[in-house]
Every structure is written in C-alpha cells, then in structure tokens.
Amino acid sequence: MPSTIVILGTGGTIAGTASDPSDNVGYTAAQRSVGDLLAAVPMLAGRPIEAEQVAQLDSKDMDHATWQRLAQRTAHHLSRADVAGVVVTHGTDTLEETAWLLHRVLAPSKPVVLTAAMRPATALSADGPQNLLDAVTVAQMRGARGVVTVVAGNVHGPADVRKVHPYRTDAFSSGDAGPLARVEEGHLRQHRDWPDGPAMGLGRLAVDPAEWPWVEVVTSHAGARGGGIDALVAAGVRGLVVACTGNGTVHHAVDAALQRATHAGVLVWRCTRCAGGVLVGDPALLSPAAAMSPWQARVEMMLGLMGEPPAGG
Ligand code: SIN
Fold first, then answer.
1. 127 CA distance to ligand 1 centroid (A)?
2. Does pTM surpass 0.90?
C-alpha cells in the first residue's frame, strides 16, 4: 500500500507572518517554508511525509507559469508507486481557481488536497496547523481520490468550492451542494462521492505559459458601458466570461458590446455574478459556464482554447 504523502508549498496566509500575534489581517503572506509549516504540526512527525516548495507567493499573484509547474509536480508525485496522495498549501484568494485547474487537467485517481489558512502562522490562534493536519488525514484516507479542498474541517469538491468570506476562518462554502465531507477529530464523515474526471491531461498545459490564451472576466452592473469590452477586443482578447446579473442578463450596452465581440470572433460565455446558484433555462441555450463561477469559467475557457489548433493551422 502506498503511504507517502507529499506536501507541495505555494505560499499564502498559511505561510504568512505578522509582527504582532494578535494581528490576524496585517501580515505578509508566503514567508514560511512548507518544511516549517510541517514542523508546526507535531502529530505529523515521524509519518512518511515529504515537503517540496513549488512556489512562494500571495495567491492574488498566482500566475500561469506557477500553475504549470504545480500541475507538473503534482502529476509527477502522483505517478510514484509509494505516494498515496498530495497536499497543496495555497493562499485562499485564488484557491478555487487552482482547484478547478488541477481537477480539469489531472482528475486524479489519488487524492490531491488543497489547504490554506485565513490567519498567519504567527497568529495567537492560527488555523493553518489544524487545516494541514486535516488535509493530510484526507490525503491518507483509503479510497479518497480527486482534487478537494480542506479548510475549517470541511471537504469541498472542485466544482462547488467558493471563497465566501474575507476574514472568517470558515471562509469556504460549497453553496447549495454543501460540503462533500467533514473531518471530525481525524475521522471522515462523508456526504457525497469523491470528484471524478474526465481529465484533459497534463499535455494541455505544455504550451509556454506566456502563450496561454487571454481570457478576461467582465461584468454587468447599473450604469454599465460597453467601451471596456470593445477595448479588450481591440487589444486581442480571445475569450470573455461575463459575470451576469441574476439568471444571465446583462445591461443593454454590455449586450451590444458582447455582440460586437462575438462578431469579431471572441468566445463569450455567460455565468452569474450571484454568490450562489447556477443559471437555469433551456439546457440547449445555456452557456457551458452556466454552473461555474466566473473565475472557474475563465480557467475552463482558457483550457478549452489551449486544446484548439492554432489559428491558420
Ligand atoms: C493568499 O491568497 O495568498 C493570501 C490570502 C490568504 O491566503 O488567505
């Protein structure tokens, strides 16, 4: 039985430090190494765990080169016969985007568990060590598979996970679906099955990250104007994800600009800017992004465009 767990560090608040232990928000993210995070959890000492620093950044600054490297290192370790699962320590701010990318590219048959913290490692009551312990617990769980997020005892699947709060330690939600499972004192209470593929495959990310297709998220709101969309099209954007009002509506000025964009060959998908729920209506007319957050849809569209043959090819 494989038993090794590999922890890949990418930075985030879980690796952040502040000069004042009572300061939960005035800190610098991505300061402590993944080895230091592991050392802060005494219960993990002596277990077959390896730690590797893949990146050290505040996840607001996540970039395509880091995604490519993270996916490659994750796939490398998952392919090892001795490895049971991979844990990724990550910032909370773009965690759901990374989760969706890894899910769509790898859809692994072993667990890949993303974890994070809302308070820095120096906080009086830091949440990172417990989250890391819970993440390793899930990664070691027999039968676990797929890309999941473990924060505040909740296990979220990649399609449902959303960051819903700017400072609470329980900052993630699976919305209407509810969490896939809960980690309770080292035991798993499971509500739904583990996430499944199909995987696009790591080859999808083989392109130089500087060449990944340009896809932007735009939105509609009171007083909206279409000039920003026209400017993006003129600058060469390949795709637009629209965070629409309600059930997929947009301001008439935005609608006109989106029609011009479509006419110019730009791919346009609609999803909702509502914090919960999905677009509903005739399935034949719904956008491929109807059930996605705007940020997931951006990843999905980009991956789709990367699978297309180059223009003129
Ligand atoms: C980050 O996303 O890297 C900073 C914020 C956080 O981890 O909570």
1. 13
2. yes
